[in-house]
Write a structure and sequence with these properties.
458 residues; alpha/beta; seven-stranded mixed sheet; seven-stranded parallel sheet; 33 strands; 26% helix; 26% strand
Length: 458
C-alpha cells in the first residue's frame, strides 16, 4: 500500500519507574517474558508491513533496542532503528526523522501496544477517504484484577476512567472533535462551521485514541514545520488538524460564522439559507457524509479530512503506559488474551518451561507462566502470575497477581501480591509485599511487611 511504517518506541519512561531503567528501556519491558516491542512487530508482520523505522529516545536505549531487534528479527523484517533526543515528544521525534520519510502516506504506531487489531485496516480506511489523518479508536480498556487479590492500587469495580471526549459525524467516519476528559469543565465549545457542516455530532466518552495513525506525509510535515512548539501527536497535532479541517470552508459558511459572531441581525437569514443548502445536499445523497458539503461543487476548494477507524469491540487493545497497564497486560496475555502470547498452553492452562524445576507440594495455577531455568522450592503457590527466566524462589512462598522478572531471587516464606519484582532483584526471607514495585538489582531486607511501596535506589 506504499505506506512507510514508523514505530515510536519511546525511551526511559518516567511513568513506568522503577520498571524502566537504563538497562531496560520501555520497548524491552517483558510481557509474558517477551519484550513489548515484539508484539508490535508481530502485529505489523501479520499485516504484511515489514519495512519499518523504530524511533527510540536516547542513544543508549536505541543501542539496546537495536541489539535486540538484530537478534530477534533477522531475515523476517527490514527494521531501521533511529535514535532521537530524549523527551522530545512524539511530534518532536517525527521532526527529527523527517528526512527518512519519503512515502505519500505514513503509518505511525506506538511501540508499547499489545493488540490484535489490524493496522492495515487503518491504512485502508485512510486511503479510501483520501484523508489527511486517520486515527484508530478502540473501546476503553478495563483495568484492575479479574479475581480477588492484589490490584496494583486499583479498586475491584473495574470502572475505566474517562480519558477522551470524541465527536463523530452520524456515520462515524469523520473526527469532528477531540479533547481529554480532564479538559472538559462545564461547557464544551465546538466551532459553528463544524456543526453546520455535520448537521449532527455524536459525542463519545467510551472510545480512546489508540496512538495508531495514518498521516498524509505532506500534511504532517507541513504542520510539524509550521508549529515548532507542537510536541505531541495526540495532544497537539491531531486536535489542530481537527480544528482546522474546515479552515478553507465555502463562503456561505464563512459569512454565516462572521455574521453570527458579530451579532448582525441578518444572521438568522443566513442560517436559514445554510439550512436550505444543507438540506438540498443531504436529500440528494443516498449516504451523505460530513465532507460531501465541500465536495458537492458548491466550493472548488477541498478541505482536508480527519477520519477514524473504530475497532471492533471484541478485539484486544492495551497500551503499556502505566504500572497498572503493565500488570493488566501480563495477566491478560496468559489469560483471556492468550492468543497473543505465541505460546502453547498446557492442559492446566498455564505455561511451565520444560527446564523449570518445581519442589514437592508446589502448585502453579492456571493463567501462570514459569520461565526457562527457574527453580521453585517446596510448598509454594503461584496464582495468576508471570515468573521470568532463571529465577530462584525458596520454600513456602506465595505469589499472586504478580510479575517476577528474569534472575530474581525470592527467599523462603515470602508473600508477594499485586507486585512487580524486576530483574536481579532480591527478596530476603519472610518479606511480605502487597502492591509494591522493586527496582532491578534492589535488595529488600529480611522480614519486612510493605504495602504500596516503591523500592528503588535514590
Amino acid at each position: 500500500m506504499d505506506f512507510q511504517v514508523v514505530i515510536l518506541a519511546g525511551g526511559f519512561s518516567s511513568t513506568l519507574f522503577p520498571l524502566v531503567s537504563k538497562e531496560v528501556p520501555k520497548a524491552l519491558l517483558p510481557v509474558a517474558n517477551r519484550p513489548v516491542l515484539s508484539y508490535v512487530l508481530d502485529l505489523l508482520e501479520s499485516n504484511n508491513l515489514k519495512d519499518l523505522i523504530v524511533v527510540v529516545e536516547g542513544e543508549d536505549a536505541a543501542l539496546k533496542v537495536g541489539g535486540w531487534i538484530s537478534s530477534a528479527c533477522v531475515d523476517r523484517l527490514h527494521v531501521e532503528v533511529a535514535a532521537v533526543a530524549e523527551n522530545v515528544g512524539t511530534a518532536g521525534a517525527l521532526r527529527a526523522i523527517a528526512h527518512h520519510l519519503t512515502a505519500k502516506d505514513i503509518l505511525i504506531v506506538s511501540g508499547d501496544i499489545v493488540s490484535d487489531i489490524p493496522p492495515g485496516a487503518v491504512a485502508a480506511t485512510h486511503r479510501r477517504h483520501d484523508a489527511a489523518v486517520t486515527a484508530m479508536l478502540c473501546a476503553q480498556p478495563v483495568s484492575g484484577p479479574s479475581e480477588s487479590g492484589g490490584s496494583g492500587g486499583k479498586d475491584k469495580t473495574k470502572k475505566p476512567a474517562c480519558e477522551d471526549i470524541i465527536g463523530l459525524d452520524s456515520w462515524k467516519q469523520f473526527l469532528l472533535y477531540i479533547a481529554k476528559g480532564t479538559e472538559i469543565k462545564k461547557d464544551t465549545r465546538v466551532k459553528k462551521s463544524i456543526l453546520c457542516a455535520a448537521g449532527k455530532m455524536e459525542l463519545r466518552s467510551d472510545l480512546v485514541d489508540s496512538h495508531i495513525y495514518a498521516f498524509k506525509r505532506s500534511v504532517l510535515q507541513k504542520v510539524l514545520d509550521q508549529k515548532p512548539a507542537f510536541r505531541s501527536l495526540k495532544q497537539d497535532v491531531l486536535p489542530y488538524l481537527v480544528r482546522t479541517q474546515l479552515s478553507q470552508r465555502s463562503d456561505v459558511f464563512s459569512d454565516q460564522s462572521n455574521v453570527e459572531e458579530n451579532g448582525n441581525g441578518n444572521g438568522k437569514n443566513n442560517m436559514q439559507n445554510n439550512e436550505v443548502v444543507l438540506s438540498q445536499i443531504l436529500s440528494n445523497a443516498s449516504s451523505p457524509s460530513f465532507h460531501q458539503v465541500y465536495e458537492s461543487g458548491l466550493d472548488s476548494r477541498k478541505t482536508h479530512k480527519c477520519c477514524v477507524y473504530i475497532a471492533d469491540e471484541s478485539k484486544y487493545f492495551v497500551r503499556l503506559n502505566s504500572i497498572q497497564a503493565f500488570m493488566d497486560v501480563n495477566r491478560d496475555v496468559i489469560g483471556d488474551a492468550n492468543h497473543l502470547s505465541g505460546y502453547s498452553f498446557s492442559a492446566h492452562h498455564n505455561i511451565v518451561h520444560p527446564s523449570a524445576e518445581l519442589g514437592s507440594k508446589t502448585t502453579v495455577g492456571p493463567h501462570c507462566m514459569l520461565g526457562e531455568g527457574s527453580q521453585v522450592g517446596d510448598k509454594c503457590s503461584v496464582k495468576r502470575s508471570v515468573i521470568g527466566r532463571h529465577c530462584r524462589i525458596g520454600s513456602n512462598v506465595k505469589i499472586v497477581n504478580s510479575v517476577v522478572m528474569d534472575h530474581a531471587t525470592i527467599g523462603d516464606g515470602c508473600s508477594i501480591q499485586g507486585s512487580v519484582i524486576c530483574s536481579n532483584a532480591q527478596l530476603q526471607e519472610r518479606v511480605t509485599l502487597r502492591d509494591c514495585q522493586v527496582e532491578a538489582g534492589y535488595i529488600v531486607c529480611v522480614g519486612g511487611e510493605h504495602k504500596g511501596e516503591t523500592f528503588a535506589r535514590k
